[in-house]
Design a protein that fits this description.
alpha+beta, about 60% helix, about 190 residues, Gyrase A, domain 2
Length: about 190
């Protein structure tokens, strides 16, 4: 047993922390902030021949300007199910279809809706921090297990310190991401 075990454990923990950040960024993309953002449809499921499928997999989703989104289904018979899925997703949009495509005018967010979104952003951030802390805890537990198998105590202590530094850095990164997203949502 040597320092390479410590590095292996820390690398694995860091990878889990990176995944938590990536997941947070992906989730925050789906929160609309008053301007057209086609990513809001990435998690909206439409019934596609009995299978729940994300809208971008059954239609072209574009944003011709800052206040409009256009959904062009690849099959005409998908217009009604897509429209229904958008209404059920409760995104605050009223889809309008002309038989060819669905046009969505993005209404400005109300103050109440903005505050609601900020709460969701903070909750997503807290979930990311929990994942990061769990990665640190798992790393420390594994290092302690290796200590019982012969890893020197000073290597374990150094590993715990490094894991805590990584945790602090990743939590700081989560806070920075949240500040940017909150500012984006609250800007009228």
């Amino acid at each position: 047993m040597d320092i390479s075990k410590q590095k292996e454990v820390l690398a694995s923990a860091k990878e889990k922390m990176n995944k938590a950040i990536h997941h947070l960024e992906e989730e925050l993309l789906t929160y609309r902030a008053g301007k057209a953002n086609t990513a809001v449809f990435n998690n909206v499921m439409v019934d596609y021949y009995g299978n729940p499928t994300p809208i971008p997999q059954v239609a072209s989703v574009t944003s011709p300007d800052a206040k409009t989104m256009l959904i062009q289904p690849w099959e005409k018979n998908m217009i009604a199910p897509i429209e229904k899925a958008i209404m059920n997703a409760n995104l605050g949009f009223t889809p309008q279809n002309n038989g060819e495509h669905i046009r969505i005018n993005v209404p400005p967010l109300t103050e109440e809706r903005r505050k609601e979104l900020v709460k969701k952003v903070k909750a997503a951030g807290e979930n990311a921090k929990i994942s990061i802390r769990n990665a640190r805890r798992d790393a420390v537990d594994l290092l302690k297990k290796y200590q019982k198998d012969g890893l020197p105590e000073d290597v374990v202590k150094d590993g715990e310190t490094l894991a805590q530094k990584d945790t602090d850095n990743f939590n700081k990164r989560v806070d920075e991401i949240l500040v940017v997203k909150e500012r984006e949502i609250m800007t009228v």
